[in-house]
Every structure is written in C-alpha cells, then in structure tokens.
Design a protein that fits this description.
Length: about 240
Amino acid sequence: MTSPTCDSPVVVALDFPSAAPAIELAQQLDPSQCRLKVGKELFTSVGPKVVESLQTLGFDIFLDLKFHDIPNTCAKAVGAAADLGVWMVNVHASGGLRMMTAARDELQKKSHQPLLIGVTVLTSMEQSDLADIGLDIEPLTQVERLARLTQTAGLDGVVCSAQEVGLIREACGADFLTVTPGIRPAGSEQGDQRRVLTPQQAQQQGVSYMVIGRPITQAKNPAAACAEIVQSLSAR
Ligand SMILES: O=c1ccn([C@@H]2O[C@H](COP(=O)(O)O)[C@@H](O)[C@H]2O)c(=O)[nH]1
C-alpha cells in the first residue's frame, strides 16, 4: 500500500503514548506532504489498529519496530508487518546476514512487500557508546560495514545518520535507500540525538527519506512546523 502522490522525503515520527494524539496530529497533516512513522511506544501501547487508522487517512506507514532476533522469529515478525500493509519495515542489521536474509525471503512470499530496511548504528550513539559495547571503531566505519552487509542480504536500504549518506552512496550506490533520523532544524533541541543534520543539510547529502519527530510533534503548531520544513525542501 503506497500512496502514489507523496513525493516528499519527510516522515513524521508519531511517538505518542496513545492513539488519540497520533490520530489528531495526522488529521492536521497532508499525506501528499509527508509519510508517518509508527514506532515502539505507540505500537506497544495500542497495537496494529492504529496503523490501520492512519492508513485510512491516506498515509504511507513506516513501521519502525527494529526487529532483532533469531532468523525465524525476525522473519515471521517482518511477515506480520507486511500483512498490515505498511510501506516500510526495519530490522537491526547487527542481527546479521542470516537474520536479514531470512526476513527478505519471508517478504518474497507475501502479496504485499514493504520496503525492508536495516538499522546500522542508532543516531543517538557516538563513539563512546560504541566503545561501551566493545566496538572500538568510529560510528562511520561501523555504519559502512553494516550497510554493505545489508545490501548483501538483499534489503532495500539502511537507517543511518544523514552525515553518513555520502559514504553509503559511494559504497552501495545511489539506488540503495538511506532513511535518516537525527534531523534537527536549526535552533531546535538536539535532545538524545548525537549524529544530526538539519533538513536542508540532509537534502544536500542526498538522503532518500528523513525521519523527524519531536521538532514537529512538540512544536506549538506541529502542522505548521511540518509544512515549513516541507516547503524549505521543495524550494531548493
Ligand atoms: O537510529 C535511529 C533509528 C530510529 N530513530 C527513531 O526516529 C525517531 C526520531 O525522533 P526525534 O524526535 O526526531 O529524535 C524516533 O522515533 C526514533 O525512535 C532514531 O532516532 N534513530
């Protein structure tokens, strides 16, 4: 289920504890201007029904549950996401080649096949966080390694920081999708994000999709904040 009319790269992250504020915000947004992301908070709180409600409003849905499990469990979870008719679903690339290949194979059995994306290194992580988990390398190096592995497994692209998109395009080609959270308009709070760029910088880097949550959802006027970002991108 893909909206043929949305050519905007913006994906709004609906991180809410219940369905009502998510649907209320979606009703103020335009499906030709953005897609929506349902993540762990909203999905765990209210379940798959909210996905259907948002689809009924005309939006493509990125189901951001970042599956990471043994190959069989991960593949079946990705298959269940496909059955919800979502536009995009993701797994952690660090789950490995066999896990990602199993997920890809499961989708190939489905009549509806969402885009399947591998999460490289969370945009909230910096070098010291990687060191804490025993990875004595720069985030960029780990991102490139996991992007190559994701492409080998036959997935459609990766979640990464917009800062890494140039490198990934060189390593994996321009058709390999880059989905980039950690987007912070100038003057907005960085919060827990570490590897950030503004929407305009992300566009210059050539990102395929940019995921934006709090700078829109916590704005005084979320619909206006979203429209301003979309317009600033289409004006370039
Ligand atoms: O590496 C990642 C992967 C996923 N996310 C998700 O994107 C949004 C970002 O929200 P903001 O409020 O704009 O920070 C959020 O739902 C994360 O779970 C990410 O940030 N980084």
